[in-house]
DNA sequence: GAGTATACCTCCAAATCTTAGGTATAGTTT
DNA sequence: AAACTATACCTAAGATTTGGAGGTATACTC
């Protein structure tokens, strides 16, 4: 994926966060950036300038709660889904999935359709 | 797809335009809105407030050329790909396709990955 | 005459992202 | 010891994109 492809992330970052947290008890910010990089073989990079504001917004919306721990001398802020967060996660993930399917329909279009 | 799903379009609108025009000689704005609605069974709606600025930007970038016709008393502004537009279309479509595949990898994730 | 479909357009506000910067600890390399 | 890399948090400024609302106009149907 080329460098400016990260701009195509728009709108999907918060759903990616919710999905990752749905599959795990809790994660911290830096861990999320590394996990996305790992799962996409380095293709997608979550910039911190996008991630932290997104996490704070989800927390402000009541979908995430935080818990701070000190591990090996460094502070970690763990995020996990609230009850409402779980509901919203399911809903937003299925919306994005449906959107992605529509997008693929459009992109796989053969001529004269 | 729910109503606010149209907000997930971000970043992909211009690629959708390029893809539609790659498969057809030329299209006009209103036709694009209808075609997208048709191809996605009404799930996706391209708003005019997003479409026309996007078309004008692609034209300003030299990827599209225009040709105005009067059909049944109404003005139609047809857009078609320039030579450079064809090149860019291929490139941007494959980028978005790769992005969508990564997104699906993330969304289809099973627990404890 | 009113409403609907077709067909173009712009402006403002909201949301999201990128870039660039800042702080700090721990370990490794020179 | 200094420099670099990895870990780990954060913010601010600016650009881009989008949605919503509005505007104009023609043709057809009720």
UniProtKB/TrEMBL annotation, chains A, B:
Protein name listed in UniProt: PadR family transcriptional regulator
Lineage start: Bacteria, Pseudomonadati, Bacteroidota, Cytophagia, Cytophagales
Coiled-coil stretches: none
Domain Transcription regulator PadR N-terminal: 17-90
Species name: Arsenicibacter rosenii
Pfam families assigned to the protein according to its UniProt record, in alphabetical order: PadR
Domain of life: Bacteria
